Amino acid sequence: MSQASQTMMKGAAILTFAALFSKILSALYRVPFQNLTGDTGFYIYQQIYPFYGLFIALCTYAFPVMVSSILIERQAERERVLKLLTLFLAGVGLAWFAVLYIGAGLIADFMGDPQLKPLIELSAWPFLLLPVLSAGKGWFQSDGNMVPSAIAQVTEQTIRVIAIIGTAFLLTNAGASLYTVGEGAVIGSIAGVIAGALVLVFFIQKHFFQKKERLSFEKGDMTLLRVLLVRGTAIAMVSMLLVLYQLVDALNVYALLTGYTGDAAQAKVLKGIYDRGQPIVQMGVVAATSLSLAVVPVIASDYERKRFSQVKQKASLAVKAGLVFGAAATVGLISIMNPLNRFLFQNEDGSAVLSVFAAAVFLTSVILTVNAVLQGTGSYHTAAWTAAGSLVLKYGLNVLLVPVYGTGGAAIATVCSLMAVAIVLIVKVYKKIGLRLYKPFYLRLLTGLIVMAAGVTLLLLVWTPETRISSGAASIAAAIIGAYLFFKVSWSRSLFTKEEVGQIPFGRKIDRLFIRIEKGGRSS
Predict the structure, then answer these.
(1) Mean pLDDT, residues 248-262 taken together
(2) pTM
(3) Domain containing 88: what range?
(4) CA dihedral 406, 408, 411, 415 (to 10 degrees)
(5) How many domains does the chain divide into?
(6) Is residue 285 part of a domain?
(7) What local confidence, expressed as pLDDT, does residue 166 receive?
């Protein structure tokens, strides 16, 4: 491997670690927040969170990637192009700020809760820092320097989590209203964003704009900006799909539940219970995709060199890993949902709905993995248009199902919408590179899942936890036993080939733990 390739892989590893750390932290802090504020307080925060999630997706995954790509292509005029892109992103950020700040009252009314207006206004402010975060990260990433982006991302999440939990603790103990606590949480998010921006500014001042030249506009700049906006949005659409679904739920689920229950207070509690599913699913997706996505970056290089047999091989491995870990995480979560819900959120309310919602882990894992494969082959727009269409489907299904089934209807709407996206992308990747998996793989996977679910169910029938602490112990024990049973039954029977095991992070270590029954056997 060349020095440049080693540097690129090292940088990608640093950024991946920062992203995983941030996602785990982002999921975990919601548990103590819910414990402090209750389901109603959690409902209030979750109504506003999608706006922040949208901001983070744009300035972490979408625009920095495109800024980096454009700057690499325009090496001869990097500083001029960077100034142009930064100015354009400032306009994008200002537009988002205006929509949220000026339209806060209309959005809150549409959600059915006018008291959310001040929180929506506050959530607009981070968008003013969009150009600093997006252009700054893109600049350093174009040089192969991922350290500033990683430090900024970890700093932002760490400060944000500390600020949110700290303000929630202080305000609830002071007897503040739950909406005031929600405002404090949004301010905590703003503090995190500012901290991340300051980290980038610290690095930027040493590198940016050594030549103080006035920005000039040239022919072709509009095309450049259109590529930044369109392709950047396309890249972001799938990565922030769950956040966009949360936004759809924020817009209409509470209003629909108010009609379903006839009681606004009860509707807020039900929406808060339903929102417990977000951190659970987020953790499941992180666990399921971290291994599968690790093998994807090399696909683009092989595709560009027209090594199509290697592209198909690596794509097959990525999709198989996404299926395996996504399915295992989903079945595992469903099997331990009752004690896990009590352990994390103090009671078992909504466990049936959360079990339905947990299917999103499997579907999202498949979608993210297949989409990464498609992006590696230069296909961006199919996934973006499919994701956009699924938002319309999600909204319509909410309208149809929530008045009949309550939050269960919202969970079903999410699963059905994700399933539609997954089917379209699977068909697309099959047509693109001829990727398909065979019956023995599915049989081995299914056998492992059945044995895991049966073992965990039997354990929880024998051990019925009655306290929060014992529920936590039961959840951990069941998860460990379930994982052992799954890997023992499926992995050891050549779920992956020996060659594939060597390409999966920690694959050989897992292989040593679960010695193969069919040594040298081939898995399709």
Answers:
(1) 92
(2) 0.88
(3) 1-237
(4) -130
(5) 1
(6) no
(7) 95
Q: What are phi and psi of 398, to 5 degrees?
A: -55, -45
- How far is residue 360's CA from residue 416's CA, in Å, rounded to a whole number? 9
Q: Which amino acid is at 261?
A: T
Q: What is the DSSP letter of 62?
A: I
Integer Cα distance of 316 and 321 in angstroms: 9
Statement: residue 250 has pLDDT above 50: yes
Neighbours of 53 (CB within 10 A): 18
Burial grade of 361 (CB within 10 A; 0-12, 13-18, 19 or more): buried
Contact 66, 228 (CB under 8 A): yes
- Is the Cβ–Cβ distance between 260 and 306 less than 8 Å? no
3-state secondary structure of 514: coil
395 belongs to a structural domain: no
Identify the sign of the CA torsion 233, 239, 243, 247.
positive
- Relative orientation angle of helices 3-28 and 30-57, to the nearest 10 degrees: 130
Which amino acid is present at 398? N
Q: Which residues contact 98 (CB under 8 A, 6 or more apart)?
A: 124
Cα angle 472, 477, 480 (rounded to 5 degrees) comes to: 125
Hey, is 113 helix, strand or coil? coil
- Specify whether the CB–CB gap between 192 and 163 falls below 8 A: yes
Q: How far apart are CA 221 and CA 223, in angstroms?
A: 5
Residue 355's nearest CA partner among 340, 344, 369 is 340
Closest CA to 310 of 376, 354, 251: 376
In Å, the largest CA–CA distance within the chain is 74
Q: Single out the residue of 17, 1, 27 nearest to residue 279, CA to CA.
A: 27
Please answer whether residues 87 and 94 qualify as being in contact, where contact means their C-beta atoms are separated by less than 8 angstroms.
no
Classify residue 219: in a domain, yes or no: yes
At 519, is the pLDDT very low, low, confident or very high (cuts 50, 70, 90)? very low
**Contact criterion met (CB below 8 Å) for 65 and 54:** no
- pLDDT single digits (tens) 398-435: 999 999 999 999 999 999 999 999 999 988 888 887 77
Q: How far is CA 325 from the centre of its chain?
A: 16
Q: What percent of the chain has pLDDT over 90?
A: 50
69 occurs within a structural domain: yes
Cα separation, 503 vs 166, in Å, equals: 42
Alpha helix ranges (H) inside 174-263:
178-204, 221-239, 241-261
Write the DSSP assignment of 454-504 as a string of letters: HHHHHHHHH----SHHHHHHHHHHHHHHHHHHHHHHTGGGTSS-HHHHHHS
User: 197, 129 in Cβ contact below 8 A?
Assistant: yes
- pLDDT tens profile 301-349: 666 666 667 777 777 888 888 888 899 999 999 999 999 999 999 999 9
Task: State the sign of the Cα–Cα–Cα–Cα dihedral 343, 345, 350, 353.
Answer: negative
∠ CA 186-188-192, nearest 5°, is 115
pLDDT of residue 347: 92
